[in-house]
Amino acid sequence: MNSENFSLSEKIVSTSYIRQGREARRSHEQLIRHLLEQGKCPEEGWSESTIELFLNELAVMDSNNFLGNCGVGEREGRVASSLVARRHYRLIHGIGRSGDIAAIQPKAAGSSLLNKLTNSVVLDILKLSGVRSVASCFVVPMATGMSLTLCFLTLRHRRPKARYIIWPRIDQKSCFKAMITAGFEPVVVENVLEGDELRTDLEAVERKIEELGAENILCVHSTTSCFAPRVPDRLEELAAVCAKHNIPHIVNNAYGVQSSKCMHLIQQGARVGRIDAFVQSLDKNFMVPVGGAIIAGFDESFIQEISKMYPGRASASPSLDVLITLLALGASGYKKLLSERKEIYLFLAQELKSLASSHRERLLHTPHNPISLAMSLDGLQADSDKAVTQLGSMLFTRQVSGARVIPLGKEQTISGHTFRGFMSHSEAYPCPYLNAASAVGITREDVTLCIKRLDKCLKTLKKEGNAAKNSSLDQSVCKDLHCFLYIDC
After folding, report:
1. What is the Cα–Cα distance from 330 to 87, expressed in whole angstroms?
2. Which residues make up the binding site for substrate (predicted)?
3. Which residues are annotated as a binding site for substrate?
4. Residue numbers belonging to the annotated binding site for pyridoxal 5'-phosphate
5. Binding site members for tRNA
6. Could you give the 3-state DSSP secondary structure of residue 427?
7. Tens digit of each residue's pLDDT (9 = 90 or more) over 331-376
8. Could you tell me the pTM of the whole model?
9. The Cα angle at residue 201 between residues 196 and 205, in degrees rounded to 5
10. For 55, phi and psi rounded to 5 degrees?
11. Which residues make up each annotated binding site?
């Protein structure tokens, strides 16, 4: 409804009522105008009606929704199912063009505007979360692993002689396979044990650079968010090393946006040294469906270079999902979620520590990990070799998802490389343990229920272990008695 249509409406319905309706619509349009002017996440979240009005306005700007449009090309935004069309708000053309994921589509002004606004709003959120000097970012419709691969492939053109990627070990398959898929040889640097924590071995990184030659190294591939007792890499020191040797530095910040500590490490690393790009997941940080990531950095030209490396057009779904989410939450709503996550982290640590003590275990001391916690399972291991892995199965069948049980001595071969002690980020971590994490969106009820079910599982396994020991002892006594009677005869 424009002003002319409102004027015509006054001939049909009372002028006072139409003016009231016009003012109501104007309040929606005012929010949209601020978004277009500032390109930032609104401080307060929008209502669903405002968001839907905005998306419908964008959709009618795409050629597939033009009244009387006659499409004779091979890709005209045709959709067979009306359910699919509604699911995507009739934004069918996707984002980008064949040569650049960030390019404007002549057929799809609305989808192009959606893409540009999403990248702008996400950049604002990255700054708000702690990386204030980030210069550019874009949403890519791939999860973290493939997004890292895209970064490595872009660096290949800058360093054509490079064969190796230096990678402080983290036992997560996708980031390792990202390097293999890009055609490079990962150089695994084992972590060092400091107390309970596994930390970056900076001396080993320096030795590898000297051994391989800086010109043969594509980049250092570091990590922030991770499972305890692994803690975020020493980003400031690694960034300084990369600047010293003129080696690019790519950071896997998978679920680090929700952590002020992880974001501070990236900000400081860029300040004192070199960080070329950092990659983060959409689903883990913004509670949207899996399938998108954010590639960000401090040099706008390099980030544009990465976006141009993406072949073909791309799905707009991840961009649409995260834009809807951030408009609904607003900056204040997202900051509130981050604050609540921090509070629940402390609650989870307290509850795990109490539970561990009651079972003669302990909460591992990992103060440098701001998201994940770990509890030892020494006693469980002593009861039975199978008890540790059995605990993981019991938790899963009791609908406790996300908890990871890490046994000792597991081996895993990934793309020809064998990891000893796989899942523990170390060849020989001193004890088996259980992981739990306080990630964005977690509630106190989640923690309380998890602790209750974990306690029951541990008690059950302890009872079974004692029964097995008693049974073994009874058999041993019977065997000794049989031998005694036989000899006496």
Report:
1. 23
2. 97-98, 105, 313
3. 97-98, 105, 313
4. 75
5. 271, 398, 463
6. coil
7. 999 999 999 999 999 999 999 999 999 999 999 999 999 999 999 9
8. 0.93
9. 165
10. -65, -40
11. 75, 97-98, 105, 271, 313, 398, 463
